[in-house]
Write a structure and sequence with these properties.
Distance between the termini of chain A: 44 Å
CATH architecture of chain B: 3-Layer(aba) Sandwich
Number of helices of chain A: 11
Helix content of chain B: 25-40%
Largest sheet of chain A: 2 strands, antiparallel
Structural class of chain B: alpha/beta
Largest interface: A-B, 23 and 25 residues
Strand order of the largest sheet of chain B: 6-7-8-3-9-10
CATH superfamily of chain A: MetI-like
CATH topology of chain A: MetI-like fold
Largest sheet of chain B: 6 strands, mixed
Oligomer: heterodimer
Radius of gyration of chain A: 23 Å
CATH superfamily of chain B: P-loop containing nucleotide triphosphate hydrolases
Distance between the termini of chain B: 26 Å
Number of domains of chain A: 1
CATH architecture of chain A: Orthogonal Bundle
CATH class of chain B: Alpha Beta
Number of strands of chain B: 10
Order of helices and strands of chain A: HHEEHHHHHHHHH
Number of domains of chain B: 1
Chain lengths: 281, 255
């Protein structure tokens, strides 16, 4: 009897602990939805900001964030996946590859504001891209790359060695084995890593602060060398830099950013489960 | 000792070691064409290692050392300039665990030929039929060629793996315990197809039991802890072994 009671108490305690984990997320989402939903309407999503950003919409910030995420993807995905294929399939275990792996792990731990300053120094000033979508995307790409590389490398390594051996035994080169067998099997893991990396890029403020983000620029960007507004920075600006900002605009902007990030996340899990059902081992 | 006038494969004084452990010591062995040669003995004897050396699959393993020579049709397969992919097309391999590649039965069989540049559809159908037929699988899968290969039974999967190797029309077929995971009926089917195949191919097999060794062998080589103890035509080795250790093993005194 006593043991059964102990077990009940244990389950209740563990359940409560799990609740503690979930509660903050629910509260954050709940508060933002409750206070931001009334600000959301067609105009809010499709109009330029007016009257010191207190009225109108957030279109340039929304478009800016989408463009920056796209630019980050274009720059980070080929390099990240290529690097992961090299590390997992080709590189032998030498001091050099160990140094590369160590560098990747350390890159993932660098504070985002440092990436921002690095991007300012390299892309904005030295390469003279100016504060531009190009410079901002590249900065975000460098920050995203370690996430993509480590996720992709892990996904590639989780494909059993025997597939590579079988492909080789049938007269396949190493690359043919990777291209035909290993890469398709690793794809769900790689896509997950890519989307997680891009999620982080989409929500970051510090790396774009000095490299691309405009305080107030009520038009859409004309070229990759143009500045743009971006959602995370816009949210920071209207929350701290503009006196008398209506709270529902602030919460509305937060809600749009949150929805953007969560929907990317949702797409990631749909893709993952789709490929996982097709996997055959 | 009876030796074929022109052995298909000559293994000459091969010594091979992983990191620090020797796997093969001074092995010299001639493998005749159009016959089944069995490499048998207790686990850890170096049989699988020797198989993997014959089509250079151990090139994929890091930190190994090899001395000696392996000749295929009197040419050193480890000589510089030898194309490893061509070699593996001439020397096929079937593994202990059947591992269909992701995809259909058809895609599995045609994987090797497609990599070798096969595009012609009629030729592909020919290869598909011939390979599956030779592996005694055609009748069972002819209506499900485009079904996923992983839906086949274990025995069918192993015969599919044999068909997959045969699709390249290799000269030599290496089999590493191909029936270790199979039931007796599937085993009999695989063994039966080996008898058919030896007319056209040189077959080297690591059997999963002494009984199987005795059943399928034309020639047999007994390995113990990295050494080749004895090599004889089948009849002699299993009825009148020359070495005490061979006799002890085939009569079941150890192993």
């Amino acid at each position: 009897m006593k043991r059964v009671l102990m077990q009940r108490v244990g389950f209740v305690l563990l359940g409560l602990l799990a609740l503690v984990v979930v509660l903050p997320i629910l509260l954050v989402i709940g508060a933002i939805v409750a206070r931001g939903a009334q600000a959301i309407n067609w105009e809010f999503l499709t109009a330029m900001p007016r009257n010191g950003m207190k009225e109108g919409g957030i279109l340039p910030a929304l478009v800016g964030t989408l463009l920056l995420t796209l630019g980050t993807a274009v720059a980070a995905i080929p390099v990240g996946i290529g690097g992961a294929i090299y590390l997992s399939e080709y590189a032998r275990d030498t001091w050099l590859t160990r140094a590369i792996r160590l560098a990747i792990i350390n890159l993932a731990g660098i504070p985002s504001v440092v990436y921002g300053l690095f991007g300012l120094g390299l892309f904005v000033l030295f390469l003279q891209f100016g504060t531009s979508i190009l410079a901002g995307s590249l900065t975000l790409a460098i920050m995203t790359m370690p996430i993509i590389i480590s996720a992709a490398e892990e996904a590639l390594r989780s494909v059993p060695t025997e597939f590579r051996t079988v492909s080789a035994s049938l007269g396949g080169t190493r690359w043919q084995g990777v291209r035909n067998i290993v890469l398709p099997q690793a794809l769900p893991g790689i896509i997950t890593g890519v989307i997680l990396g891009l999620l982080r890029a989409a929500g970051e403020t510090a790396p774009i602060l000095f490299t691309v983000a405009a305080f107030f620029l009520p038009r859409l960007p004309q070229s990759p060398l143009d500045q743009t507004m971006a959602l995370p920075y816009h949210l920071y600006v209207i929350s701290t830099q503009v006196p008398g900002m209506p709270a529902d605009v602030q919460y509305g902007t937060a809600l749009v950013l949150l929805a953007l990030v969560l929907s990317l996340n949702l797409i990631a899990s749909v893709i993952r489960s789709y490929f996982r059902r097709r996997r055959e081992w | 000792m009876v030796t074929d006038p022109a052995p298909k494969i000559r293994i000459q004084d091969v010594t091979y070691a992983y990191d620090d452990a020797a796997a093969l010591r001074n092995v010299t062995l001639d493998i005749p064409a159009h016959a089944i040669t069995v490499l048998f003995g207790p686990a850890g004897g170096g049989k699988t290692t020797l198989l993997r050396l014959i089509n250079r699959l151990n090139d994929l393993v890091e930190g190994t050392r090899m001395s000696g020579q392996i000749l295929l049709d009197n040419e050193d397969i480890y000589a510089p300039g030898v194309s490893v992919t061509d070699l593996r097309r001439r020397v096929g391999m079937v593994f202990a665990l059947p591992l269909p590649l992701p995809g259909s039965v058809r895609q599995n069989v045609l994987y090797g030929p497609r990599l070798a540049g096969l595009r012609d559809q009629g030729r592909a159908d020919e290869i598909l039929f011939r390979s599956l037929n030779q592996a005694a699988l055609w009748e069972e899968v002819k209506d499900r060629l485009d079904d996923s290969a992983s839906a086949l039974s274990g025995g069918q999967q192993q015969r599919l793996c044999i068909a997959r190797s045969l699709a390249l029309e290799p000269e030599v077929l290496l089999l590493d315990e191909p029936t270790s995971g199979l039931d007796p009926i599937s085993t009999a089917k695989v063994e039966h197809s080996l008898f058919e195949l030896k007319k056209d191919y040189t077959i080297v097999i690591v059997p999963h039991s002494v009984q199987q060794a005795a059943r399928v062998a034309d020639h047999a080589a007994f390995f113990l802890m990295g050494e080749l103890i004895e090599h004889q035509p089948e009849k002699k080795l299993f009825t009148a072994p020359q070495k005490k250790r061979t006799e002890d093993y085939v009569t079941g005194r150890f192993g």
